[in-house]
Prior knowledge:
Number of helices: 11
Shape: globular
Order of helices and strands: HHHHHHHHHHH
Mean pLDDT: 85
Oligomer: single chain
Structural class: mainly alpha
Amino acid sequence: MTVEPTWHLALALGLLVALAVVVSWRARLGIGRQVVIATLRAILQLGVVSLIVVTAIQHLWSSVLFVSVMFAIGTYTTCKRTGVRRAWPWTALAMAAGVLPVLAIIFGTRVAPLNGFSLIPIGSIVVGNMMTGHTLAGRRLFSELRDNIPTYEAALSVGLERAAAIGLVTENKAVEALVPTLDSTRTVGLVTLPGAFVGVLLGGGSAVQAGAAQVLVLVGILVGQTLTVSTAHQLMKRAKLLPPDLKERLRP
């Protein structure tokens, strides 16, 4: 599928954004302005990134640099979304715990060649999904902790250490950050045909090659998010990765 930057594209985007704004207004969601800003940012950013990728993809070193910048932006974004800006080194550690092993296995086994044409698309997909997994985990677990301060304090009162008391509140909720990816993996081909699959087909690859590429991406995302969410959860239990208000309230 090829989409040309013509007035047809401008019309389609305008109608889509207008529809979202109207629905947001009618449903009182309050995100109409955010939809417009997000769309404008996407247009600008993709335009600039497209020019950069053309250059970066030609060399391995520039591809590594490009993915590293994406990782830094992803870390900043999830820190902002979860309210842990001061704990960005721990956020970076949690994301790296998911990104590095997955990329090491993919390129170490030579299932994909280690060059810019493989590193940038695979690396960007993995980094983006680690950011999403970390954000979902942070928002869900921090909300759970705020709602269950009495449970945490009761756990401390019976002699539990801080890490164990936090874990008592969050242990059964961490997995919820993985539900969207688990569902995507379970239903691939039945409910959705993801981008990697369609991209390989449209690029002239066979259905078998498209399926292999998509399985690699989906399993990589699932494993990476499992590592990221698990690492983030352990850091939360040790009070390393907490927003300021929880760090103050969850005293040992």
